[in-house]
UniProtKB/TrEMBL annotation:
CDD domains: CGS_like. PANTHER family: CYSTATHIONINE BETA-LYASE, TRANS-SULFURATION ENZYME FAMILY MEMBER. Belongs to the trans-sulfuration enzymes family. One of its GO terms (biological process) is transsulfuration. Pfam families: Cys_Met_Meta_PP (PF01053). Keywords: Amino-acid biosynthesis, Lyase, Methionine biosynthesis, Pyridoxal phosphate. It comes from the Eukaryota. Its cofactor is pyridoxal 5'-phosphate. One of its GO terms (molecular function) is cysteine-S-conjugate beta-lyase activity. InterPro entries: Cys/Met-Metab_PyrdxlP-dep_enz, Cys_b_lyase_euk, Cys_met_metab_PP, PyrdxlP-dep_Trfase, PyrdxlP-dep_Trfase_major, PyrdxlP-dep_Trfase_small. Pathway: Amino-acid biosynthesis; L-methionine biosynthesis via de novo pathway; L-homocysteine from L-cystathionine: step 1/1. This is Cystathionine beta-lyase. It comes from Pichia sorbitophila (strain ATCC MYA-4447 / BCRC 22081 / CBS 7064 / NBRC 10061 / NRRL Y-12695). It catalyses: an S-substituted L-cysteine + H2O = a thiol + pyruvate + NH4(+); L,L-cystathionine + H2O = L-homocysteine + pyruvate + NH4(+).
Length: 404
């Protein structure tokens, strides 16, 4: 049989050869907890949805293809992915992690560390030399994010994965690709062992489900991941699998439009004098590194105003941008990570990790970009963060103290 042709990602996302017995154009939804057996001795492919479900299989095969993996799994949230992955470790195992991770990731790793289940160390992943020096033959797992949420730090994942495997061939390098999605990054091509994503974000894109996906090329790791998912019962429900497959079809067009808007907004804020963190700007300290690893800068950016009060006024002064956690949705969102998504990281730790309390995060949607810039302009003026000059043109940001 001729090998199956693999098309470009945009095509694969919408191409749906689901092999349905009735040629349904859309993969059918098997909303069933149980499956009858042919006989006592012949169980068939499915028996119970916790163990497996045809709709989940459809989604997982699709995910494996678009992430260039051999095995993929869908679970109930991004944090669910991390829970499954950390269960692969043994008591007391040493793990390394970045020092700017999504707040919930930090919370779970801190919990496991405090309980004594794992020995977790956090290091700045932008300092490659330092990070590499912390990897020892006892390092069992490494957790990376790039660009990080919300400080948009970029790490040299290729060098970290190569070095980790040299020092300990059994070290499992885990990469959270939520910020880039498969459209802009293929971490498995860079030497990562396990990639996971909060599918609540770009993969689904409409903020109407919670989901997470795990992908790997390693059959043994896949077997262990499946064991945990089946044992703990965190597989994604059939209906949410079905919704996620629907969302995935538009991933490429959504995220490309979001990125286009984000680039314009990042330039707009930067031109006003704000310190903008976005890997699409040449001023980003790891601009070239990011370009060498990814196919685009994505649609999340953050910026500082120099004053917590000013930031609060900006966040509360927008109309189109919703004040909400999360990102990757078709709608634009604005937030203050210290108060919202990253509030679970205590103030002392935030300070130690140079986490600016006035940081505003923008998650850009697919709206008309002129409208978004107009909305931000009004909020910036109302907050006093920028002023108009005599010719009624926007004038430099007034309270910013650039720290670049
Ligand atoms: C980078 C990143 N990873 C993982 C998660 C966790 O995903 P979920 O909310 O689907 O559990 C989030 C956000 O919640 C995130 O921002
Ligand atoms: N209350 C939630 C906060 C979720 S933050 C979601 C998202 N990852 C983001 O970065 O905005 C919690 O405590 O987990």
């Amino acid at each position: 049989m001729a090998p199956k042709k693999i098309y470009n990602l945009e095509t694969e996302l919408v191409l749906n050869k689901n092999g349905d017995q009735h040629n349904a154009s859309v993969p059918p939804l098997y909303q069933s907890a149980t499956f009858k057996q042919e006989s006592l001795s012949n169980m068939g492919e499915y028996d119970y949805t916790r163990s497996g479900n045809p709709t989940r299989t459809q989604l997982q095969n699709h995910i494996a293809k678009i992430m260039k993996a051999n095995h993929a799994f869908a679970v109930t949230s991004g944090m669910g992915c991390l829970d499954v992955i950390t269960r692969l470790l043994a008591p007391g195992d040493e793990v390394l992690a970045g020092d700017d991770l999504y707040g919930g990731t930090n919370r779970l790793l801190t919990y496991l560390n405090k309980k004594g289940d794992l020995k977790v160390q956090h290091w700045d992943t932008t300092n490659t030399e330092l990070f590499l020096s912390k990897i020892t033959p006892n390092t069992k797992m490494i957790f990376l994010e790039s660009p990080t949420n919300p400080l948009i730090k970029v790490c040299d994942v290729r060098s970290i994965a190569t070095h980790a495997h040299k020092v300990n061939p059994d070290c499992v390098v885990v990469f959270d690709n939520t910020m880039m999605s498969p459209i802009f990054m293929t971490p498995l091509d860079l030497g990562v062992d396990i990639q996971y994503e909060s599918a609540t974000k770009y993969l689904n894109g409409h903020h109407d489900i919670m989901a997470g996906v795990i992908a790997t090329r390693d059959a043994k790791l896949a077997e262990r991941v499946y064991f945990v998912i089946n044992s703990t019962g965190c597989g994604l429900t059939p209906f949410d699998c079905w919704l996620l497959m629907r969302g995935l079809r538009t991933l490429a067009v959504r995220i490309e439009r979001q990125q286009q808007n984000a680039l314009r907004i990042a330039e707009f804020l930067s031109n006003l004098g704000f310190r903008v963190r976005y890997p699409g700007l040449k001023s980003h300290p790891q601009y070239a590194l990011h370009q060498s690893l990814c196919r685009g800068p994505g649609a999340v950016l953050s910026f500082e105003t120099g004053s917590i009060k000013t930031s609060e006024r900006i966040v509360e002064g927008t109309d189109i941008f919703g004040i909400a956690v999360s990102f990757g949705c078709v709608n634009s969102l604005i937030s203050m990570p210290c108060r919202m998504s990253h509030a679970s990281i205590d103030e002392k730790t935030r300070k130690e990790r140079d986490f600016p309390e006035d940081l505003i995060r923008l998650c850009i949607g697919i709206e008309n970009c002129d409208d978004l810039i107009d909305d931000l302009t009004k909020a910036l003026l109302k907050s006093g963060a920028v002023k108009l000059n005599e010719r009624d043109e926007l004038f430099n940001a007034v309270s910013v103290q650039p720290k670049l």
